[in-house]
DNA sequence: GTGAAAGCGCTAACAC
DNA sequence: GTGTTAGCGCTTTCAC
């Protein structure tokens, strides 16, 4: 504070009576500097309250330690706040790893790619985290082609619906599907939900899903069907597919519940579950004789907590942690750092198991 | 692409046959360079696909054009997603203004202040956007003391409850309350909601609020009370205060609705409104004779849309735009840029009026 | 109006 | 091990 401006490497060097390079070494490769010198330098740093200027370092090393993330326009879905939580977790993990998260926006995929270019050309962003990737995404293609480190949150779903990582059709320079990603195992989630309902004695467990073709939706459906099949109940499988909204959920539920044997519903989302809940409640009011209907949602949104809805919770923090890990792996593997061997050989694709949060809507009849 | 690496100022200068300084001028002060030279330089820039390196510029100018924002830990409230929307809008506005938003996290206020220091010392962040400020916030104090540009989203509520900007108790070097902020006029919001209900013929309009002492909550209550007073109905004013949750909202509503004359509820939040809605529905079922109850919420969360709840919508995008504006004003007013006069003289404190979104829960009896 | 010189704070080479 | 020499790409004097 006494000096007019902040101390620099030179200030520290003078103070410690060494060259400025030695100070730099103490900071970046402490092991190559003699302990007593190191001590002296560290003391000087301490005394002066020196903080390295990362901008200068960045100019020199061409590494920014900054990650870019496109802020998606708030989808109007009810599942708000999972992005909030993810963002918080990601920022936190990044910070812990010495990285920063920088936000940007883009109208569409092409604009986003243009932003990648700008961001890399002008501010030297090191890598990107992509959410909301979709089949045949031009963004992942571009990033692969330009050798930019990135990780997607969500698998690269083939147009078919099954997870990628399998078919390696030909010897293209870059197999787009085969990039680092982290995702939540939706199938395992619905499996848990369905099993939970079966364990509670339900036999005819219907599924309220999204229209066919969405990788995520089909994956969740698969988990339900699998479980039913394993239990020898696949013959009774009932599915209703609908758009993701409360109203549509209610309508779909009403259709399914015309079958009096259906006593439980596994829903692909909390929105649909919320609709189903309303439908079930009306049904219970109008027909006290009918068996009460158990319901599970997916995402464990605040709404689920609010209305006491059993739901599959996404471990967002884990996802963020693994995403940062995967990104770090790529960053460290770049030209300069020979630490490539240091990093534990890790899978480039990570599937995280969600867990079921059991609440009132799936517990024994009230 | 032909060349190995990216073009720099020198590359452009050579290409345009001018000094590198002239190129810099074309970029930063185009008006001082002769039109024909400028043309030539611009063409060279175009041809080479030159992009200025902001890191180098930053090292030289000490301005980063980056804004810091602490990512708050997801509050468990139902009102998720307003942060999402705000973040998107803020990023968008910032980008439009040539600024970037960088995220960070901190455990508490002190840790946040430490991050301010780190961020400014090492990466040279230009300013901050603070959300969730509270009475006697040490962060705003610190930022004022260190002359760091910032803007808060939300007024600096005095411990009393009234908005600051009024009492200037003594001649302290920095009047903490008197910093730039943007906020939503909650009072105007509940005023609109209450008036809407009065217009619909309701006479006894109760308020379900938060416990006393929260600036935001008291402000919202004030709007309701004001409107009732203006209508000469203050004598009938009924308030129930409760924690912000669906269950508490239902309980509070039940208490208020014991009074058969109460036909409308203005709620301080969507969570509470959601509870009230459930209570009202049960009441309607059990006592078909009673007049139906109209309900309004606050925040216009996805849940409100989902259950067709009338609610006060926060114009988040406007807030973001004004926040960026206020920050820009401070950034431009700094040492170098003499453009201080250019910026329209603007208020340093901005109150934005929300608007009511009328939905089923407040329309004439179904 | 344009150019030349200097330097922002740091690290990568290479000498010593 | 340590110091010296060069820049990274840009802008800011200040001559011309």
TrEMBL record, chains A, B:
Fetch the CDD domains from UniProt: HTH_LacI
The segment(s) forming the HTH lacI-type domain are 7-61
Organism of derivation: Isoptericola variabilis (strain 225)
Record-given protein name:
Transcriptional regulator, LacI family
Q: Which Pfam families match?
A: LacI (PF00356), Peripla_BP_3 (PF13377)
- Judging by the UniProt lineage, the source's domain of life is Bacteria
Could you tell me which PROSITE patterns the record lists for this protein?
Answer: HTH_LACI_2 (PS50932)
Q: What is the lineage of its organism?
A: Bacteria, Bacillati, Actinomycetota, Actinomycetes, Micrococcales
The cross-references to InterPro entries, in alphabetical order and at most eight, read: HTH_LacI, LacI/GalR-like_sensor, Lambda_DNA-bd_dom_sf, Peripla_BP_I
Record carries keyword Membrane: no
* Recorded GO MF terms: DNA-binding transcription factor activity; transcription cis-regulatory region binding
Keywords, ordered alphabetically: DNA-binding, Transcription, Transcription regulation
User: Which Gene3D superfamilies does this chain map to?
Assistant: 3.40.50.2300, lambda repressor-like DNA-binding domains
